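Recall from the previous chapter that SMILES is a line notation for molecules. Here it describes calcium ion.
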Amino acid sequence: MALRFISGFAAVAFAVSGLAVPAALAKPVSGASAVKMIDTDNVGTVDLKEVEAVASATFDRLEKDSDGTLDAKELKGRLSKAGLKQADPDSDGTIDKKEYLAAVADRFKAADPDGDGTLDAKELNSKAGKALLALIK
Ligand SMILES: [Ca+2]
Ligand SMILES: [Ca+2]
Ligand SMILES: [Ca+2]
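With both inputs in hand, we obtain:
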């Protein structure tokens, strides 16, 4: 009886921890795993070209209605209201690919305080690095 109770309790505990897994996955990627994902030439850092390749794929994936631009709905929170305004110099309320890549390049620059043109895991873990990752994920 006691054993059955304990195994029942374990099953509940497992189910609860199982529920916690998706939340953990939803957390922003760490700098190190982001480097692994983006760093196609495997040098341990990411350069703007690699980031732009990922960003370009993200843009195409998000651009559901094929009108050539991302609106707030398609961006799904990747840009805040203020961020969208900043990334939208022609103020048409949407982000075309050129505007999107310019915003990505801006964030890349902000995340690269040592200005060596590459981002390492530590730089990607910074606030600016995370802002970049949030935009291209
Ligand atoms: Ca669109
Ligand atoms: Ca625009
Ligand atoms: Ca750097």
